[in-house]
DNA sequence: GGCCATCAGTTGTGATTCCAACTTTACTCT
DNA sequence: AGAGTAAAGTTGGAATCACAACTGATGGCC
């Protein structure tokens, strides 16, 4: 049965096995196109195709001139963990990741207060983080905290660490995912054309049963995919 | 600048624009490989590549012998909406979707009671749904409801409709996403090898501030991707 | 009219070849 | 020795050709 399978799948499955089993650790080099043709006795098309599929799965990452390497796997992690890979992934492909962090003075936000389970008129601290790749903004995160946790003098990028230091243990994260911006408020920062689809993630960090921070993450659709796939021939919608 | 762009991107962008702008409605046929080579004056490789990229984005779906068509877009929807497309998507590619629904008699489940915000000893109704594609199980959903909503005599597949009929309006859905099974309990149904990665979604349907149903959805990783991508050349990790 | 076979069209896969841009390494020259 | 250069290797993009499996429609035959 494995005989009738596409040739490139043999390569994909063998390399994937080596990666998932830990034989190839993150950062380890993957055989090049030429090496694959020799090792597996396949054509160049199949080798290239195999690498493409693995890259598309997020298992490896390629760089012109340098080769493919095993990648950390943000694709299988929740969004808030995947986001933590932004900087490392940008570096991995030679891009310069930056982010602006701007913390506003505290004010009352009844809509946010509901999410934070606090009194409607309690002031919250707003932090806006614009993630950029080579200067181009590609992601916007707007984070809100009760003022008791942050009076506006520090940024929220390391919220987990800091709150951990305060003796609060973050136990879970709630994410609501929408396919559109609820309001067109913040889209100016990302320089999106009107009516564009975005992925909107409303995220709340909880410590026990108490929410300590909530945020809205806005990512244009061409930058995030929540792909629902099934095994072959449905699985890789692209290749089979 | 558009001159130095890859040729296949011209095709991708033009077709994508037509789809997102609604010129090509879901179900509409996409030009074939040959037609693309003629219309856009590109080679067959570029045409194939363009179709592959659009398929990988979930915008179109291909079928051998029949061609590509504009697809519904479950990829940009929350998981619980994407799941609703299981049956239609399976049909679209000529697979036979089935699902077993089994509802247990009610018993007390303190762990679930916490999620449903009910008393620890209150009985809950458990419903297990095994989604199959051509008989092969590809997805498992275990759903729990307070017995007040379901005494075990009906299944939960249409929970939204039924509760809507009861005068309850479902307002939001909470999803917690994990990269591994918390317990190895249910994995036997899916016939997964030990230690395999799965996407575990803990989902709760709320009516106002009252949870009415909670479920665990378990999907093997090769069947679901939460792909974190950025624009070219990072965007399509596979092709550029 | 209804049924069946044929055929053109389409996708998925594959081989082969080529080139530009880039990275890394090794080497040569000062 | 150090710096700059050249060469080899790598990826991404692209063209061209080929074939198996499948679909849909056409047309002929009963």
How would you describe this structure in keywords?
homodimer, alpha+beta, Arc Repressor Mutant, subunit A, 8 helices, 27% helix, elongated, DNA-binding
Verbal overview:
The structure is a homodimer of 240-residue chains. Chain A is an alpha+beta fold and 240 residues long. Chain A has 2 domains: 7-71, Arc Repressor Mutant, subunit A (Orthogonal Bundle), CATH 1.10.10.10; 97-223, Chorismate lyase (3-Layer(aba) Sandwich). The first copy, chain A, has 8 helices and 10 strands. The first copy, chain A, has helices spanning 7-20, 33-40, 44-56, 79-83, 86-92, 110-116, 159-165, 187-190, and strands at residues 60-63, 67-70, 97-103, 107-108, 123-133, 136-146, 172-178, 198-207, 210-220, 224-228. In chain A, the strands form 2 sheets. In chain A, strands 3, 4, 5, 6, 7, 8 and 9 form a 7-stranded antiparallel β-sheet that branches. In chain A, strands 1-2 form a two-stranded antiparallel ribbon. In chain A, a hairpin with a 2-residue loop joins strand 5 (123-133) and strand 6. In chain A, helix 1 crosses helix 3 and helix 2 packs across helix 3 (44-56). Strand 10 of chain A pairs antiparallel with strand 10 (224-228) of chain B, so a sheet runs across the interface. The structure holds a DNA duplex (30 and 30 nucleotides).
């Amino acid at each position: 049965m494995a005989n009738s399978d596409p040739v490139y799948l043999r390569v994909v499955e063998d390399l994937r096995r080596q990666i998932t089993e830990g034989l190839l650790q993150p950062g380890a080099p993957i055989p090049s196109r030429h090496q694959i043709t020799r090792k597996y006795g396949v054509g160049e098309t199949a080798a290239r195709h195999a690498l493409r599929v693995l890259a598309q799965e997020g298992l490896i990452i390629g760089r012109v001139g340098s080769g493919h390497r095993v990648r950390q796997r943000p694709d299988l992690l929740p969004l808030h963990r995947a986001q933590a890979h932004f900087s490392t992934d940008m570096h991995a492909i030679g891009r310069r990741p930056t982010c602006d962090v701007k913390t506003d003075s505290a004010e009352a936000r009844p809509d946010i207060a509901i999410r934070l389970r606090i009194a409607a008129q309690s002031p919250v601290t707003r932090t806006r983080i614009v993630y950029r790749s080579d200067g181009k903004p590609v992601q916007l995160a707007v984070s809100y905290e009760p003022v008791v946790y942050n009076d506006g003098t520090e940024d929220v990028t390391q919220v987990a660490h800091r709150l951990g230091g305060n003796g609060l243990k973050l136990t879970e994260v709630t994410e609501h995912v929408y396919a559109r911006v609820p309001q067109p408020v913040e889209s100016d920062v990302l320089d999106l054309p009107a009516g564009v689809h975005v992925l909107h993630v409303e995220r709340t960090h909880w410590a026990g049963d108490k929410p300590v921070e909530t945020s809205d993450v806005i990512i244009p659709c061409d930058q995030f995919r929540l792909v629902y796939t099934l095994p072959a021939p449905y699985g890789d919608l692209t290749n089979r």
